[in-house]
Amino acid sequence: MLLSALWSLWSLDVVAALVTVYGQIPLGITSALAPTATVAAAYNTTVLDPPEVPNPAPPTSFTLTVPSANTSVTGLSIPIKGTFYGFSVEMSVITQLFGKNSSFLQVPLLNLFANIQERAGAVHVRVGGNTQEYAYYVSTLPDGHAISKEKANTNNPTETPAVVYTVDLFYLLSNISSLVNVKWYIGVPFNDTSDFRLQIVEYGEAILGDNLLGVQVGNEPDLYAAHGHRNSSYNPQVYADEFGELIAALTADSKVPVSNNLIGPSVSGTWTPEMVWNTGFISEYTNNLAALSVEHYPTDNCFPTYGIGTYHDPQIEFANFLNHTSGVSLCKPYLNSSAIAQAAGKPFLMFETNSASCGGFPGISDSFGGALWALDYGLQMAYSNFSGAMLHVGGQNVFYNPFTAPPTNVSRYYEWTVGAVYYSALISSEVFGRTNTSQIVDILGNGANIYTPQYAVYENGALARVALFNYITDATGKSDYTATITVAGGTVPASVQVKYFLSDSVSTKNNITWAGQTLGTIREVDGRLKGALNVVTVACDTGANKCLVPVPAPAFALVFLTAEAPIATATFSTSTHTNTVNTATINPSLLATSNGMSGANWQLGLGSTSSGDNKNGAGGAAMRADVIVGAMGLVLVLGLWY
Ligand SMILES: *[C@@H]1O[C@H](CO)[C@@H](O)[C@H](O)[C@H]1NC(C)=O
Ligand SMILES: *[C@@H]1O[C@H](CO)[C@@H](O)[C@H](O)[C@H]1NC(C)=O
Ligand SMILES: *[C@@H]1O[C@H](CO)[C@@H](O)[C@H](O)[C@H]1NC(C)=O
Ligand SMILES: *[C@@H]1O[C@H](CO)[C@@H](O)[C@H](O)[C@H]1NC(C)=O
Ligand SMILES: *[C@@H]1O[C@H](CO)[C@@H](O)[C@H](O)[C@H]1NC(C)=O
Ligand SMILES: *[C@@H]1O[C@H](CO)[C@@H](O)[C@H](O)[C@H]1NC(C)=O
Ligand SMILES: *[C@@H]1O[C@H](CO)[C@@H](O)[C@H](O)[C@H]1NC(C)=O
Ligand SMILES: *[C@@H]1O[C@H](CO)[C@@H](O)[C@H](O)[C@H]1NC(C)=O
Ligand SMILES: *[C@@H]1O[C@H](CO)[C@@H](O)[C@H](O)[C@H]1NC(C)=O
Ligand SMILES: *[C@@H]1O[C@H](CO)[C@@H](O)[C@H](O)[C@H]1NC(C)=O
Ligand SMILES: *[C@@H]1O[C@H](CO)[C@@H](O)[C@H](O)[C@H]1NC(C)=O
Ligand SMILES: *[C@@H]1O[C@H](CO)[C@@H](O)[C@H](O)[C@H]1NC(C)=O
Fold this sequence. Notes:
Blueprint: H1 2-16, E1 61-67, E2 85-90, H2 94-97, E3 104-106, H3 107-120, E4 123-128, E5 136-137, E6 147-149, E7 163-165, H4 168-179, E8 182-188, H5 199-208, E9 212-217, H6 236-252, E10 262-267, H7 273-277, H8 281-285, E11 289-295, E12 299-300, H9 303-306, H10 314-321, H11 324-331, H12 335-344, E13 348-353, E14 356-357, H13 368-383, E15 388-393, E16 403-404, E17 417-418, H14 420-432, E18 439-442, H15 445-448, E19 454-459, E20 462-470, E21 481-488, E22 495-502, E23 513-514, E24 536-539, E25 547-551, E26 555-560, H16 588-593, E27 635-637
Parallel strand pairs: 1-21, 2-4, 2-15, 3-27, 4-8, 5-7, 8-9, 9-10, 10-11, 11-13, 12-14, 13-15
Antiparallel strand pairs: 6-7, 16-17, 18-19, 19-20, 20-26, 21-25, 22-23, 22-24, 22-26
The chain binds 2-acetamido-2-deoxy-beta-D-glucopyranose (12 copies).
One 2-acetamido-2-deoxy-beta-D-glucopyranose is lined by residues 319-320, 323, 325-326, 329.
Protein name: Glycoside hydrolase family 79 protein
Pfam families: Glyco_hydro_79C
Domain Beta-glucuronidase C-terminal: 454-558
């Protein structure tokens, strides 16, 4: 009986493996299974036209007078951690992105996480999405898989396909955390209040321990009725009551030691958060709430796939992402709630976001302009007193992925693909750094021109960095600007160091660099930054108290006013495969000398402005320092699993 059930699961898995489960189901859609696209969206090559230079063009020279101490600044944010931007990973794509099971981890993923860890101290990753609601535990899955997916229950054609997982899912996450400092959010299934299926929390707490940040309760409950997960009378009060039922179930479960780590309500805009606050949610559950959360996408691209809603032409939409108004107006509806969260002593999280629901837009979501947008939006969320935000990652058939693993049947031949918004997360980790004390303010200089937003960041109370955007694409150079930074209540240093985020146009997706380095183009990413590090030193005029920082069109520039500790990244080699032809075994002597962060593999970052010091240069002695493994003897693979 069990065996045949497993076999049927296995065959479902094989069928389902050809299909990408979307992260968002639009209203009125009864199945989450999207038709397979002929060309997977993650590799779509659409290049849009950059918007014209605006008329009037923004002034190309302006002065920013920035106070030296946080005590002289009004409207500064709460302290923001370098982990601000994390990732939200749809459960159904864990196998492709993280690895098959706890014995096989995806090396490019470890590298991509390590880049952020070295800048922020940790990486925050949420595992969940619509697919968490119907997830259920099984004791084993065929062929050693930790997670698998099943087609929708035929008894309930409206439901999201279930994800099935074994306890090894948590060892997989835990083993990732033992190599890179990843902290996890998980979600408890919430489709059935008579059977909460608490194994996710039981195993999560037992196996992840301190690496578990929190447990989401309900994913976009404001869409439950529309998606057929609840009946039409579902409302914020019923959600709040069900939240209470879940707390009761957790409290009654002796395998759940901790139930003060819950996160809600994760409403997506159909209900305002205030509708949930008005039920008394926060005061009633304050002892169980680790954070308050919302989810939101600025727009949607549901029409091409599902034929519903309005068709949004990407070329026309592009301009809406390429100015400061976007981030500001996205945050505005949440300012009341972020203040309420602060008063309640709870972090306020954007639990899932990206450029557009239903997979994003071709030519926008994966473009340099999309990355400038996501970075500005992230900094604006931080300024608006969010404590964190998670960029959503789906499968092959979405345009907005920060990173995409090759489909398993070609994983031996291709490497990974990084979407431009990965850089937004990477850069934001440098904007905030590792001290947990960074406070950010939107400066609104240059007459608050929407094409040239700027922010100042204070660390330990002192001005540390200035962030400068130029959203305009103009190859003539006429839209390049020079920002003059003057420090009020102090003076500029003798020089500042500037890291640039560059590409030729907001439209490009392949030629993107951060401080001279790139992760590479489609299907050639192993997760390591390549190329010579290029940190530009700008001499300042201390007598005149001025630093003139040039910013090309388009670009983002991060100006460091204080000396920074070098950024060092441990990297993981991608030379092993799970297939029998090419399986690398681990040299035990490596095991003996490695603790997962081998000192031999440190890469010099900021502070070493000489490119010769960068041991990770693509043309130089690139680090192939072999597999770095923890003492548990993991095999790190670029896998071929089917
Ligand atoms: C990119 O995606 C769009 C929208 O799905 C599609 O029309 C177009 O053919 C794709 N183009 C390429 C080159 O992949
Ligand atoms: C909830 O999900 C589980 C597992 O997928 C399924 O067995 C069950 O029927 C669902 N319950 C409801 C009420 O939809
Ligand atoms: C992972 O899968 C492989 C088969 O590919 C299997 O041999 C191994 O036992 C699995 N590991 C775990 C921890 O289940
Ligand atoms: C890694 O996974 C294995 C199960 O395959 C487990 O025995 C081991 O404890 C895990 N290691 C860590 C550090 O979590
Ligand atoms: C909706 O479901 C709730 C709880 O199961 C039930 O009490 C209520 O009567 C239902 N409402 C409708 C309109 O079916
Ligand atoms: C903020 O939210 C509270 C709680 O829902 C509500 O009472 C209040 O009217 C809101 N204030 C504003 C300015 O929206
Ligand atoms: C700037 O972005 C906003 C919000 O996305 C949009 O409504 C507005 O039209 C854009 N402005 C211009 C001039 O493109
Ligand atoms: C963020 O919180 C700080 C501290 O409470 C407050 O002064 C500031 O006005 C808030 N920012 C916004 C945009 O609401
Ligand atoms: C991989 O699988 C896809 C989807 O079934 C198929 O279109 C493609 O041809 C396969 N590629 C290889 C190299 O087998
Ligand atoms: C920053 O906060 C994290 C917890 O979120 C903590 O682990 C870390 O040690 C803190 N870093 C510093 C420098 O205090
Ligand atoms: C200034 O920064 C210090 C150190 O991070 C912090 O303790 C203090 O609260 C900040 N003051 C203001 C007004 O934000
Ligand atoms: C890549 O970008 C750099 C800097 O913007 C530029 O000099 C170079 O010509 C671009 N290369 C290609 C192939 O577009």
